[in-house]
Amino acid sequence: LAGPAAAELVEALAQFGGVxxxxxxxxxxxxVRRGGELARARTCYDHLAGALGVTVxxxxxxxxxxxxxxxxxxxxxxxxxLAAVGVTVGPGRRAAVRACLDFTERRPHLAGAVGAALCxxxxxxxxxxxxxxxxAVRVTAAGERALGELLGVRWGGAAS
Length: 160
What we know:
This protein is an alpha+beta fold and 160 residues long. The chain has one domain (28-151). It has helices at residues 4-17, 29-40, 50-62, 76-85, 112-124, 141-151; strands at 42-44, 47-49, 66-67, 73-74, 98-101, 108-111, 128-130, 137-139. The chain has a two-stranded antiparallel ribbon. It has a two-stranded antiparallel ribbon with strand order 3-4. The chain starts with a helix and ends in a 9-residue tail after the last helix.
């Protein structure tokens, strides 16, 4: 049951039932901090999520790199942008682009092969780094610069 198809099914069922993110209670200060980190920036399976994932998706849409009129689709400009940035999307059976409802933001973030490739690239370039024992990621100073230069996004360093 592992893999993108199972993830899509679980996300669809959670959205259908209206329970995505419901009932999450922190039992300690560490839990509260970790919850804040997860809401701010994390991975969702193999792509960026939380406020970071939604912000990147919205910035890509605003710049015409993604089209959200009928679901979510990569535009020709988006394909050129990915190539210019150095993001390589390998061939595969999964959808190239898919909207994934973010459980903390309640808005979609970018999933699919493109979302996974963008996340892998951000990790490889040192734009984000994984937090220990968590799905949370931290945007680095290099990541803040990249977000600004590539997508016009200002990301606050103090809380990232």
